[in-house]
Amino acid sequence: MPQPKKHSSVRARGNKASTASVLRPGTVVHDAPELPTRRDEDGGEVPWQPQTLEWWEDLWAAPMSSEYHSSDKHALFVLAALMDEFWIMPSAKLAGEIRLQRQAFGLTPYDRRRLEWTIETAEEAKDRGTRRRAGGSTSRQPDEGDDPRLTLVQ
Length: 154
What we know:
By secondary structure, the protein is mainly alpha-helical.
């Protein structure tokens, strides 16, 4: 005879992803790493395109950068090189490769949704502050009454 089924509240899966995160704007505490020096065939330095430099600064100023690990910077260097090539000679093939590479870093709203990252809005931040203030102060003044220290001087 089969066992009775478990209650639905016990059977239901709680599909909370371990990668879910709320990203707070303005909480970036690190500087952008320096883009590596690139060399041409003759050994001369190849400068980065202005659009790539602007993208690099925006990338590291964005709330998503707080989720990046130090090991991610190497893949981001590759993405920066692809972006730089795109600004020199745009192509659909290069745009497709950039799209594939940037998915891992939450650079578009769709990618952030897939990674379950949400950027906190101003309203959510205000609500969080209001709830914190309404919760009362964590430091409490002692009640009025006899001060136990006075027994030492009497």
